[in-house]
């Protein structure tokens, strides 16, 4: 990626220095760890896992500060977040006639309080609509490269863009609509989650297309890195690795092929209207 001319976002909170700090009603227990592992391997919606495991939102937060100026990974994340802010601000203004409200991005290690409950590294990056924050332990990028065999800086950027896509869904009221549908039709919860996740993938592709058109951020091989990451974290691939067989009815994020397809749809169309996974007859 070409980020030399990209600005660093001011919306990054660094809680890594304090380490895990849990307060309020939430606790870290065996049940939470098991659920976190389930989330990591099977793609369970992290906000649902957190709420089930921890109960009401926790009030105590670990101290936050700006990332140090000599931390290359933190600088990279800040610049990618800045790119999402500039891109989505333009999309909201031009295409939706609305103002974009940027999310915060929280760097943490181990575990941290969130408005959705206790966030843990084992769950991978996630978005909490309760506080409009994206949470990430940067050690996930090592897992992405080593465990999931999806190296590259744009693979990492895709992960951030996907979580920001969930923030966009929250701003547009899509998340609330889906939550209402889940409550009315519990049997459709997984299918609705898949459509939510694939739309976030499409939004990530849309972001990449618009950001590159505006500021020429993509280099040769970047798209392939993102497609490799989308393939690596498809539900079918993860289920096959963890249990040796695939259960499509248990999908919550979509298959590798679906994730690639919707990322490419956003990338090729550059249109938010083309990311309506909920009206699509097939995914």
TrEMBL record:
It holds the Pfam family Zn_peptidase. Keywords: Membrane, Transmembrane, Transmembrane helix. It comes from the Bacteria. It is a single-pass membrane protein. Residues 1-23 are annotated as: Disordered. PANTHER family: INNER MEMBRANE PROTEIN, PUTATIVE MEMBRANE PROTEIN YPFJ. This is Neutral zinc metallopeptidase. Its main location: membrane. It is found in: Membrane. The keyword Transmembrane applies. The chain crosses the membrane at residues 26-44. It comes from Achromobacter veterisilvae. InterPro entries: Uncharacterised_pept_Zn_put. One of its GO terms (cellular component) is membrane. Residues 1-17 have a biased composition (Basic and acidic residues).
